[in-house]
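Page 37, top half.
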Amino acid sequence: MAETRKASRFIVPVAVAGVAAATIGLVPALAASGDPDLPEITAQQLIEKIAASDTQTLSGTFKISTDLGLPLGGLTSALGGIGGGPSSADPSEKLTELVSGSHTLRVAADGPERQKLTLLDGSDEYSLIHNGDDVWAYDSKSNEVFHEKAPAGADAPGAHEVPKGKELPGTPKQLADEVLKAAGDTTSITVDGTAKVAGRDAYQLVIKPKQTGSTVESVKIAVDAANGTPLKFTLSSVEGGKPVVDAGFTKVDFSKPAASDFTFKAPEGAKVTDGAAEKAAGEKGDPFEGQLPGGLEGAFGDFGAGSGEGGMNVIGEGWTAIAKIDSGAPAPKTDEAPKEIQGLLDSLGDKVTGKFGSGTVFKTKIVNALLTDDGKVYVGAVTKDALVDAANSGK
């Protein structure tokens, strides 16, 4: 247990690398020619088409490939299950697998009340079902079931919302909505030809930063020409190589799925864990409790709640926005970490110096984080030089 607690505080530099902020602007442009042959459309018109899309029902298969440039095999080995919950079927545990590699998923949706996602992994399957007031998850490999109840009371606010942390992963539409939800002058948005996605005619929306210093090369969204539903989402890094995220339908049907698709009965002999039991187990002993340096514990508990110690300040805007967090405590010394963690941090980090002093930049293909030796964190979808400049400015 002591070794586990000692290891957990060195996860902070890895954790901060998962936080980024980006603000998008909209610039109309004419469509390029392409195949299939579709009527010309401006970027503004295509964005309006996405916004007007009200797809409530669908079923299909989509593939998601993620390449953050992280040695996630080493990360898994180093963490050794630290912080794992009592149920392997818990979505907050299982769906972290989507942050690396390639995965095939079957999806079905019937309005806001019913959704189902099945993650296929060889002969094993993991299913997550939201049906009214219930959220079920089933892991065939361990034969375990996780069950969560939505808030009681049909008329209560949030009565039919999926409990926090148990949401279904982002579809191409949800990913597109996140990119398009804000406006400004930091972005070029154009329509660049057409494509066939899952047998559907689609326009290609291309989004690029105008600012220098961002790690984002482009975001491409394939939009169904008939109903405005995003069919594919691709996020590419300035580093090149494989896309950071490439998620798209390979088959899709917009008719209403059968009601039976959303029913679930725990298989005989399966271990069933209720969300209330999961919460109680977490309250008994959190291996991370008290292990985060100073204000980082508060910062990650209520990220962005304020400024100053334990809070967050945002430097800059748009694609080059950088979040600054003051932990209020010196950074942990990596040479004190267990060997497995030490090797991971060495592979992720570059030592840097400047007017601010010294620190380490932890790298991914899209989000970078500078952890200074005096405990300040600068993180964003920006280059290493941009982080160092922000730290040197002392803002």
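Page 37, bottom half:
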Amino acid sequence: MRILVATDFSPRSQRAVRRAGILAARSGGTVMLMHVVDGPGSRETSQDIREAQRMTVEQIAVVPELYRIRCDPLVVRGRPSDEIQDAAVVHDVDLIVVGSPHRTRTRYTGRTLRNLIRNAPCPILVARRSSASLYARVLIPVDFSDASLRALQSAGSLKLLDRAHVTVLHAFEAPGKSKLSGFGVGRDQIDSYVEGCRSRCAEDVEALLASGGLVDRDWSRRIEEGSPQEAIARLAERFPADLLVLGTHARTGFRKALLGSVTEDILSTGGADVLVVPPHASGRCRQPRPPMHAGWSEIAQAAPRLVLG
């Protein structure tokens, strides 16, 4: 697995770097540690690039999860979301890992993340927790769209579900339920109506899994009444997850993802890591240009000698 991890050397991106190392070690993959320098190409920007090169090498050296992992540095100048996207295309990346967005102004803000997800050629893993282990509990909310199927399959192919307890969640609302009592329908009949809706949704979940060849997986299924926000909150309180997997729809992009505003709400608050699986981006990415970056040998020569303990 080829992993690109974006860093701005903050504690948030440090979590992303550590997570990338954990996943690379599990899959026998490689890591590209990327930093983007903003600026018009002035002398100050050139100095920033040299400093970023030095800091990137240092970060590779001091992060224990990267020990014995092939990790290449990449420092470029430009707009973060564009440069990360271009690098992912040029280097045929399987997964992009970024730190959690923050309300304060940094290179990898919520806006950058949104722009990246709209055009990303591969899944984006947003690392929000510090961890030294693989994911143990994974929650995958689904509707019955291609986006949900793509999210399920991508999480499996990236080996994020190995050895994890996986729960597939579907939230439903029984149409017209709130009006039934006003028409004199008894409680037992209303409950029966709701259970009928739940049963049909359970069948649809099984059909979704079967369409992806996933029906035989030893995964829990939860069919919860209520909005997606309510269902996720209830389940997270009873069974805290390490990872939440969400798919996005091609027709509306990030701001209208699988769960509408739920996805953006999740990313703006603390909690589990989030894997966002965007639509296939073929034909939607900008034509990649050769990245401006220094090679490993050039960067290593510019950086101070580092000793691994």
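Margin note: The beta strands are 2-6, 30-37, 71-77, 95-99, 124-127, 137-141, 165-172, 220-225, 243-247, 273-277.
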